[in-house]
Each structure stands twice: as structure tokens, then as C-alpha cells.
Amino acid sequence: MRKILVSDLKPGMILAKDVYNHEDGRLLLLKGFSMKPRYISKLESLDITYVYIDEEAVPVAEEDIREEQIYSEAFSTIKNVLTSVREGDSIEVAPVKETVDEIVQKIINNENVFMQLTGIRDIDNYTFHHSVDVCIYSVITGKSLGLSNEELTELGMGAILHDIGKCKIPSEILLKPGRLTDDEFLVMKLHTVYGYEIIYNTNGLNKQIANIACQHHEKWDGTGYPVGLRDNQIDKLARIVTVADVYDALTANRCYRKKDLPHEAAEFVMGNSGRLFDPDIAKNFINNIQVYPEGCMVLLNTGEIGSVVDAGKNMTLRPKLKIIARKEGPPIYDPYIIDLMSNPSIFIVDILT
Ligand SMILES: [Fe+2]
Q: What's the CA-to-centroid distance between 217 and ligand 1, angstroms?
């Protein structure tokens, strides 16, 4: 075992001791974890200066690193686009198209590739992570619905740009903690129309992509905005983005609300299928995204901490876990498996990574 600066960590190095957040004492990473680029960034962002690692490292698959690169390129691209549009510049289409093409290609080959990367809950960068996650969830759902490659690209473009109209909303409304007044909400709703205008007037983007931004808050039962369209009047690709947008927003900690756990957000989507959401799309969404992806670390009501070993699919909101630690009490030397499907009294109370 040796002590190493976080700045010297490399992917594949193995943690020799648990890592805690100094500020709130939360367990961040467990002994035995193989370092991944996103864990290293997380430690850096929390100002953790050193950790203990084992002498032996395990090689990290090139593919895993490539997926993280694509995710972070998508993050930077949408950050640049949203920042420049806010400053009055136009959208630079080529990098957005490039990043969406890469996401679509990866998902066509394997729909689970990005699942471990979604759900990063960094309050300062919420909008950028949200845009990328909505893109990933939408493309996975679109693939399951049998969309063509061309439609998947348009869906991905519309999804990553769905909230671009927020760049035209005054920041006192956009960033207001707490509930908006009725008048403020009327202004906020305009982000859909602004999004349509920005996209429609950009060379290289088309009406289909603009319609996604315009209609992503329309609801299946006609109670949405800006127009109050219902069921098939709403563009199909926009209906997909609506589900992805709501699911991702519910699972995020925002300044005005505490996050839902992923299975709670998934239950909300299913519970509102046929009311807020297109039932076919809601079903495909839940059947195809991994609510708790493999490798995700969760805390159970029993105080045990487990890492997901089998995410399951088809409405499986209760994964199979390898229990590796306890929040309090003696350490676990012999990890064991708990299948939440066959243990109804055990449930997830928090998500750790
Ligand atoms: Fe929106």
C-alpha cells in the first residue's frame, strides 16, 4: 500500500483504503475500487489531495476510457454551445453533430455503454450533465422503438439542445431558488418557443430538431405547454425527450428540491404513463435504461452498502447487489450477494456513486 497524490492517480489503480468526503463524512469510494477517470475528477473536484492505493494496478479497457472521453466531450460541447448562445452567438453545429453521432454509434452497438456515466449530480454543472443524459436516455429509448439511424441522430440533436431556449430566460427567473410566481412561470415556459426559434434559424439544424425543443413540455393528455397539444399531435421524438427529461430532472438534487432515487423516478414515469407520457414510450424507456447500472454503489435500509452486480432490465427496479461494507459496524471481509427481487423488505435508501 502507498499514499499517492490524487493528481498522480491513473485509471486502473486500486484503492487500498475507503475514501471519505472531509466535509460531510460521506463515504465516496470503497477500498478495492479500480480508479476510473470520472472517480479521479470527482476526488479532484472535492479537493481530496491524497488516497492510498495498492501496489498492483489492473489494466483498464480502452473502450471504458473512450466512453468516458465521449461523455466528457459531449459535456464540453454543450457547455460551449449554451455559453455562446447566452452571449448572443449562434450555435456551432459541427461539434454538436460530431458528439451526437458518436453517442448514437456507441448506443447502436451497445445500449448500456453510457449507463454508468449518467446521473452525475454536480449542482454547478447540472444543465450540462442534464443535456447529455437526456440525449443518452432518448437515444437508448429511440433505438428500442426501432428508429432509423437518421432519426436517432435527429433525436439526439434535439435532446442535447432541448433546453437551449433557456439561454434567453433572465437569470433571476432561471436561477431563482424556490417556486416561480405565475408570471415568472409564464416567462419560463417561453424557453420552448425560444428554443424552436434558435434552432430553426441555425444553418445545419432542421425543423424536426426545432420541434423537439418546442414540444418537450407538451403532455400526452394535453396539459403541457406551449400549445397544449395531445397524444399523436405531439412529435414522436419530442415525446421521447419528455420522458427522458422528466426522469433525469427528478433524480437530480436541485436548489429547490431533494432528488428522487432512480427507482422512485422510474415509478413516477410508469405511474404517469398514458397521462403525462406516451404509454408505449414510457414502457420502452423503463425497459431499456438501467435504473441502477452495474457498478453503482447504494446504501440499503439495513445499513449495508452494496455494489450493483446485475442491473437487470424489463422493469427491474430491484437489482442484484454484492454487499461489500456497512455504514456502521464491523467491516465485511467476505462480500455476499443480495437479490432485491427476492428480498422485498430490503430497499435502497441512497445512491453513493
Ligand atoms: Fe425544458
A: 6
